[in-house]
Amino acid sequence: MAESWQRPMFSVVIPVHNKGPLLAEALASVSCQIHQDFEVLVVDDASEDDVLTAVRAFPNLPIRCFHRSAPGPAGYAARNLGIREARGCWIAFLDADDLWFPAHLSTAANWIARHPEAGVYCSGFEEHMAGAVKTISIAESRCFTASAFLALYARSDLIHTNSLVIRRELLQASGGFPESGVRRGGDHALWFRCILQGAPVILAAPVTSRYRRDHSDVVRDPTTMTGAHPVCHVAEEAFAGRLTLPATWGKREDHWIRQLANRKALHWMLQRKRVGMLKQVEQRLPYPADLSPRNLIRWLLVVWIPGAWLRALYALQTLRQRVG
């Protein structure tokens, strides 16, 4: 009977695997939030270091701790455990090696109050790697229909795990993160499933989180990009009728679904070719007849540009980001 007023607005899910010292920094960024209507769920994904020391350093935070006996790939199973145990109306994610800025949850709360019909919220974020800083943000805050957001998503990644807040029921209906057969890209597969349910998406311009790629073991390991990108599997399910798409969607949305699958597939191909891991048989597009101009350029790079040239282009881009 009293559940509604006891339920916090946000449940903050933090998976941890062997990053106890960094967890303290993540929790400090949560404790500094202007908006304080939240709970924190720390999921120890079979860490070999000390997670509880970091947790005990924040006695005033409403933390609940959970433990898994065996680690899962990319923390997906740990996040799913957090989602199942969450009491909040909205689920926010923060990796143990990343940070939020103080206005992260307050900005989300303000925009959610303006657009209660939304199912997904995302703000801008910083991406740090090898001394380079890249800012990913939309120019103007806005609530998009799922169809309009899909058009943006087909062109570029405007969202990241640490900057997302998603309605709990939507996450549950989308099936959660993939727990088997996927070592990378499972987060985007889940966001894709959420969008395909037709939920409006809020994109907020303020930059309110920091993604520290230098600490990501998954990003550093090119062997995690094996097989088809998980987003491509979701697209296959959608076109095979195994996912129920909004009744008003048609050829336009089908085009954007194909564009997104191609973009994600090409990203993995380019990364594998850059490190000398792309085999000739893997140079296949999921939807070869549907290429945007950008994806066509990416495809030509995959087919024609030597791997050494790609490495040089990547190094030049990284240098420009550092200087900038």
Explain how this protein is built.
The chain has 324 residues and is α/β, with parallel strands linked by helices. It is 42% helix and 19% strand. The chain is built from 13 helices and 10 strands. Strands 1, 2, 3, 4, 5, 6, 7, 8, 9 and 10 form a 10-stranded mixed sheet that branches. It is globular.
Task: Note the main sheet.
Answer: 10 strands, mixed
Measured by DSSP, the beta-strand proportion falls in: 15-25%
CATH fold assignment of the largest domain: Spore Coat Polysaccharide Biosynthesis Protein SpsA, Chain A
What number of domains? 2
N-to-C CA distance: 55 Å
Radius of gyration: 20 Å
Quickly count the helices. Answer: 13
The oligomeric state of the chains shown is single chain
Give the secondary structure arrangement, pairings included:
Blueprint: H1 3-6, E1 10-16, H2 20-31, E2 38-45, H3 52-56, E3 63-68, H4 76-85, E4 90-93, E5 99-100, H5 104-114, E6 120-129, E7 132-136, E8 142-144, H6 146-155, E9 164-167, H7 168-174, H8 186-196, E10 201-212, H9 217-220, H10 230-239, H11 251-274, H12 293-304, H13 307-323
Parallel strand pairs: 1-2, 1-4, 2-3, 6-10
Antiparallel strand pairs: 4-9, 5-10, 6-7, 6-9, 8-10
Q: Any key phrases for this structure?
A:
alpha/beta; Spore Coat Polysaccharide Biosynthesis Protein SpsA, Chain A
Summarize the structure.
Helices cover 42% and strands 19% of the residues.
